[in-house]
Amino acid sequence: MQTKEAAEALPILDQMTQRGIKCTTISYTTLINEMLREGKEDRAKRMFDEMVSSGHKPSATTYTVFINSYCKEGRIEDAENLIVEMEREGVAPGVVTYNTFIDGCGHMGYNNRAFDTLKHMMDASCEPDYGTYCILLKHLLKGNLNVSYVDASALWNLIELDTFWQFLERMSQYCLNPTMKTFNSLIAGFCKASRIKEACVLLDHMCGKDITPNEEIYMSLIK
């Protein structure tokens, strides 16, 4: 669908219907995403309305493509309002939704808002993943280096332990306790960059918090 003009979307849906091919939530979401990529938000919203009126319930992915578009445009309020709307409609934001919004906040320099979202995420029993922690650390590092951009692929080569202590302190300020997944992610990141010394410092800190390392952590250290 990426080679098609968004203007052709409705005729395509008509053709699918005429041929007895049922449009699914995935079909609608794919078309909406392409419209947003082309900057045709009004058409994307009309497609969303068409989707709902035809009896298809938007998925978390459907909402996330809009949130992603808003964040890229710096429209953080609109993105946050959409998260509220999807929750009101009974659609739980997933890790990708939260990561997208957290990254959008970070790009705008709203690190406090990013940690607010992390708290909301964890309070909603949505476990942050490796990507979540990379995003938060990337934006903290960006502020520490006083630069506008940090290449995510170079994160684990650039970051120092001071940024991790800062990260853990920020979590504490929001009454968030690092979990096994938190330490798994941080230690794995350092290990991927062959920085075993730093990984072992975090391992010692983890043990000092009475969190017993699991097999995944030890496997990261010995690879």
From TrEMBL:
PPR repeats: 24-58, 59-93, 94-128, 179-213
Signal peptide segment: none
Keyword Transferase in annotation: no
Swiss-Prot/TrEMBL keywords: Repeat, Transit peptide
UniProt similarity note: Belongs to the PPR family. P subfamily.
Protein's UniProt name: Pentacotripeptide-repeat region of PRORP domain-containing protein
Organism from which the protein derives: Triticum aestivum
